What we know:
The protein has a 5-stranded parallel β-sheet, sandwiched between helices. Helices cover 44% and strands 11% of the residues. Helix 9 (166-177) packs across helix 10. The chain has helices at 3-6, 18-21, 29-40, 55-66, 82-88, 92-97, 116-127, 148-154, 166-177, 185-194, 199-215; strands at 44-48, 70-74, 104-109, 131-138, 158-160. By secondary structure, the chain is an alpha/beta fold. The protein folds into 2 domains: 29-160, Rossmann fold; 164-229. The chain starts with a helix and ends in a 21-residue tail after the last helix.
Amino acid sequence: MEWFEEFGFDENPFSTDPAFSARSSAGLEKPLADLEYYINSGSIVFVEGAEGSGKSVLLQKLSGKLGGRVVFIDAVLGDVDVTAIVKSRASLLGRLLGNSPRNLVLLVDNAAALSPRSLELLKYHYDNNHFGAVVLAGTVLKSSGLSPSVIDRIGNRVVKVPALAEEDALLMVRNRLGNSGLFSEEVVRKIYKLSGKNARRFLQLCERACKEAAAAKSSSVGEEHLASLSRPVGDV
């Protein structure tokens, strides 16, 4: 039996999967609104944030709001054939006539992994209005590895993902656990202080605390289950 089943959950409530996290995130309202503004103005924009800060979650939330207009790419999974992706989104009639779709919204996670050729094709399809807007996500724009011409097009259109705030951490736990009573507010605050204000690490620490409580056959997570949390996440 998995630890979360022992506490009455069907799935891990502290999963860091971006699609899962998008349903229970907190503190991303402003960057999400900023991105929608830039998309509506037809811009190329960069989402900037530290590893684990919530960039992928933000892109998932944006994708959910925009629906069928979105083309989502995780560049770290391999080189991207941008032209093939555009063609695949054309209607049957458009394909027969050789017409490409227009005003798609391209979201690229881990944009630093894009090859120079993919970047050039991205610009081509943006200039030809196949992409009405482009969102690229990475850690720091100036060291992103993007070509100077792409960085020039981004200009000052940079949306920064903020560090996790303590009250947002509390809200995130409430969103994920409901009224289960698994954590007290005081315990959540203590875990938050260990997280370095990093959303992914906060969720990982919550999960580790739950595993400690489950191993101890406790019905809730107490301060006694936090002793090991200062160790790196990969340690056992």
